[in-house]
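Folds abound. A case:
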Amino acid sequence: MNFDKLAGSYDSWYGTEFGRYADDLEKRLIIQFARPKKGEKVLDVGCGTGTYGSEFSKMGLEVTCLDMSKRMLNIAKTKSKNIDTILGNVEDMPFEDNTFDLIVGITLIEFLPKPEKAIREMRRVLKDDGRIILGVLNRFSLFALHERIRRNETYADAKFYSIFELKNFKVKRWDSTLFAFKVMPRFLLNCFERSDRILSKIFKPFGAFLVLEMKK
């Protein structure tokens, strides 16, 4: 996937009705798991256009965003003056051991040929009492089914994961969100939003967006 080519249109997703809906639910769960505290050092790995990095910056965290796409990083810089952006590879990061309190990787490992190597690097640069939070697209979901049927080119080179596969990466705890179908009208999205937490208890392995906290 050429993310430099995608950079200019990447944020248009958040302007769609379903995009806004999904982003809101996903952010709530990520922040719940991340437990961010003012003054902490956070690394946003595969940050894209800085959606999460800018959010953590507003909360008073010291944010570093790392990505392999220069154009994505240029857009991220426009969202917050208070984030550091670094062009780099998650499998070989230019940081000392035990540097960060919090590391997040949102829709990251789906695009990596060797995600286990990236996770080892995250563990290396994480402080002993830190948290690694991943947001991963679920292969056992209505969203994944819809994207496969549409043959969405954004995900042509991506591998969606089930929670059963992800447990091999030493998951400490996990949850899911986003049970709505992508083409639902607004009134149905409202119904699903109100019942999302209930659905996550009943159909937890099938939410479109899996959130995991990894063991150090």
Summary: Strands lie at 41-45, 62-67, 83-87, 100-106, 126-137, 171-177, 209-214. The first strand starts at residue 41 and ends at 45. The chain has one domain: 3-214. The mean pLDDT is 93.
